[in-house]
Amino acid sequence: MNIHSKFETEMQVRPDDIDLFQHVHSSRYMDYVLAARYDQMARCYGMSWETFIQRGLGWYLTAITMNFLRPLGLGERFMVRTWIEEFLPDGDGVRVRFEIEKQATGKRCLNGHAEYKLINLATSRAIPIPEDIKSKYSI
Amino acid sequence: MNIHSKFETEMQVRPDDIDLFQHVHSSRYMDYVLAARYDQMARCYGMSWETFIQRGLGWYLTAITMNFLRPLGLGERFMVRTWIEEFLPDGDGVRVRFEIEKQATGKRCLNGHAEYKLINLATSRAIPIPEDIKSKYSI
Amino acid sequence: MNIHSKFETEMQVRPDDIDLFQHVHSSRYMDYVLAARYDQMARCYGMSWETFIQRGLGWYLTAITMNFLRPLGLGERFMVRTWIEEFLPDGDGVRVRFEIEKQATGKRCLNGHAEYKLINLATSRAIPIPEDIKSKYSI
Amino acid sequence: MNIHSKFETEMQVRPDDIDLFQHVHSSRYMDYVLAARYDQMARCYGMSWETFIQRGLGWYLTAITMNFLRPLGLGERFMVRTWIEEFLPDGDGVRVRFEIEKQATGKRCLNGHAEYKLINLATSRAIPIPEDIKSKYSI
User: Fold this and answer.
1) D-contacting chains (≥3 CB pairs under 8 Å)
2) For D76, which of A57, C31, C32, C101 is 20 to 30 Å away at the CA?
């Protein structure tokens, strides 16, 4: 049972994302997920990346797992769906799940999960997520 | 006096496009121009990249000049405008002009021009642009 | 207990790998691992990527997990170490482990594992690893 | 007649540099040139990028022209040669020439030139090149 909202960002494959097998290069799927999280921070969670920076905070990616199910090709449109699975037990991070779907067919191309820690940019150390931020991310 | 149509593609900066100075990395502007041409081939000139490939043809970039006027930052939306300046004298290519404008302010970030040759993919050699393609590109 | 050889590839961070936090952008670590595997195929396992292609075969990445331990910065040299952990039970793939170490300090920056399936490029389907290839990868 | 020294940096194509035509993606040649300049700043001109940053200075690319002569492919080694053609008349920049050669054949793949302005990072404005830096770049 997932208790947190799922959010969607629609994107399109750029020619420079394509690799020698005519498909999206595998590391670019990761860039799509990161781009969707960036978009959703401001648009869905109501606190932009820039606002985090102004408060001296940033989300630092500590781990990611990706399963490649079906490739995307040149020019294809796709949906990146992400959601918070849980707040990490230490109180300083979140586990995010994600999936990418091809717009034309609705078929799944990628799924996986990532862990982010909240970092104090001045010290580069993880800190407990402040209550107001935790509240914004609890939707 | 420009006799060929100008076409526009709207795009947005992805986080992976940003460099250590917090601006779009300079080579990524080139990717934006290439992505806009790809988009405009199908949408504006009526002959997609894929159709070219099926006919055993491809556009090969032989030269590019870019002037960097003003940087784009994280998440910014921008317009890539491109148009054919002229068909090259040898009959096997086109000179394309382009410019990138920041959506929020309408200010110019980049301008420049590129030359593309039409290549027979089987031989990797430039060939005269067939009349039907020249006609599509003469709008 | 690891029974397969560990191989190393030394590389250096390129300026275009750096992100807005002045560190290597997270998806580029994945590119480093893929580049090291490419290098080690020819140099260490004795069968280059190109030879696979000529036989109509390719390794397709089906899953990857990466743990980000410590960032790399501009210009830093690093070692990418990879090794086969096991042949997958279905006989059509391998599980590879990898780690990245900073040359200047010997400190670990990244570790993780990936699964590759051997693909028949004509059908895009996984196939059993032929004995001669399995033998090369069993060192 | 060229009066400034030519410097060389050897590099190798990474798999993530390859595009759908099996060659290095055109914008990556630009990354190779920028990487070579970064390397040569410290190694050849005796003043590293990081030292510039510490003095509050940075080189900002204002224009580039590239001519694509012959493609590089997967795994190929190449030499990036760059040199200062002239100090710009306004005293705040340099014009750099560059060329890329395939190691295996010595054949030319790319040539071109770029203009860099010296920027005060605090104001983002071009400033006259200080005499000590001009002296280092006059070799």
Assistant:
1) A, B, C
2) C101
